[in-house]
TrEMBL record:
Species: Microbacterium betulae
A GO MF label: oxidoreductase activity, acting on paired donors, with incorporation or reduction of molecular oxygen
Record has Nucleotide-binding as a keyword: no
Luciferase-like domain location: 25-350
Xref: Gene3D superfamilies: Luciferase-like domain
CDD domains noted in UniProt: Nitrilotriacetate_monoxgenase (cd01095)
A family per Pfam: Bac_luciferase
Binding site for FMN: 56, 99, 149, 153, 189
The entry's keywords: Flavoprotein, FMN, Monooxygenase, Oxidoreductase
Protein name stated in the entry: LLM class flavin-dependent oxidoreductase
Amino acid sequence: MTRELHLAGIYASPGGNLGGWRFPGSPQAADTDPRFLIAQARRLEAAGFDAVFFADQLAVPDVHPDVVERVSTVNDSLEPITMLSAIAAATERIGLIATTSISYNTPSAIARQFASLDRISRGRAGWNVVTSLTDAEARNFGRSAHTDHEARYRQAEEAVREVYRLWDEGGIARVSPQGRPLITQAGASPSGRALAARHGELVFSGSTRLEDALEYAGDIRRRAEEEGRDPASVLVLPILATVVAPTRAEAEDKHDALTSLLHPRVALGDLEFWLGSVDLRSHDLDGPLPELPVTNQSHSHQRAVYDTARREDLTIRQFVQRAISAVDHIVVGTPDEIADRVEEWFELGAADGFNLMFPYAPGSIDDFVDLVVPELRRRGLFRTEYRGRTLRDHLGLVRPDGGSSAR
C-alpha cells in the first residue's frame, strides 16, 4: 500500500508559541473555552487531520512568578480526558489523543479512562504515555521529589503492560471498533526510545533538523524490528510549527509580529525550565551557557540545548534571542515552501507525517488548513477524505487482534 502522510494537531492555549496568546485575534481564554476547542477540532476534522492531541502537565512549571504571569500555557488548561469526551460528542472521525502520566495515575484508572473515551468516541481514542517531568508535579501529589528518570521508565513498562492486560481481560476488543486505544509515545532518551519502540504505534518526535529526524526515525524503526515488530507499523511524527502566508514577505511580517510579543524574561525562563528549573540570572548573560548538572527532568531536551549552544557557540543572551525568534522551531514561508519541507522529510523517511504545533490560534490553524493542506493534496500527499471511522483506520493500522479496524 502507498505510504500516506499523517497529520495531528496539538492543542495549546491559544498557540504553541509562548507569546501566541497575545497575537491579534487569539482569544486569551481559549484553553478553558470548550466552544473554542470544539470549533478547532471540527476545523481540523473538516481538513482530514488524523487526530487532535492534548499534551498535559500536572503542575504549574517551576519558574519565577514574573514568567508565569506572562504566559498562559499550562497555567489554565482543561483536563484532557474530560475535554476530549466533549469533543468526541461534537465530531465523528478525528482521533482523540490525551497525555496521561503513569507516575501519578494507577494502571486501572488509566485503563478505565481510555476505555471509556474509546467507547464514547466509537474507536478514536489514543493514550500518550508519559512519566511526567518536574518536582512541581510530585509536590502536587504529596511527594517531595519526582521519581528518578530510569525508575520512571521501568514503571512505565510495567504500567503499559498492566493496562494492556486490563483492556484485554475487560473485553474492550469486543466492543471497540478499533480493538483498543492507540498507544502514542514521545521518548527521546535511550529509555524513552526503548519504550516507544516496544509499545508506541504513533511516536512523536521533537526533531526540528532533518539530520536529527532521520536519525531518530531510523533508530525507532530499528529498535522496533529488534522487538519483533513490523517497523512500518510504528509511525513517527516530528513536531512542525508554521507561519504561512500567500507571499514570503507576508509570512515574515506575521513571524516578526509574533516574535515581538515574547518577553525576553519569558524566553530566559523557558530556557531555565528545560534545563531543570535552574537560575541563569546569576550567570553572565553574555558568557557561554554554563556546564550544569543533568537534572531529573527531560534528559534529551537538556542535551539538545547544550548541543545547540556548543555547536553554534552561543552566549546565554544569544540563545534567548534565538528562542524569541524561534528559528529552530517555526518554519516560515509560502504554502509551496511549507509543502516542500513536508514532502522532503516524508519522502526521505524522516517522517511519516507531522505533529502540528500552531504558534497562535485560530489564525495559524486557519492558515495551514486553507493554504498548506490544499497544496499537499495537489501533490498527492494527503487524503481528500477519511477512509474509515476509527483512529487506526486513519493511520492504516490493524486491530490488535490482527483484523481490520473498520466496521
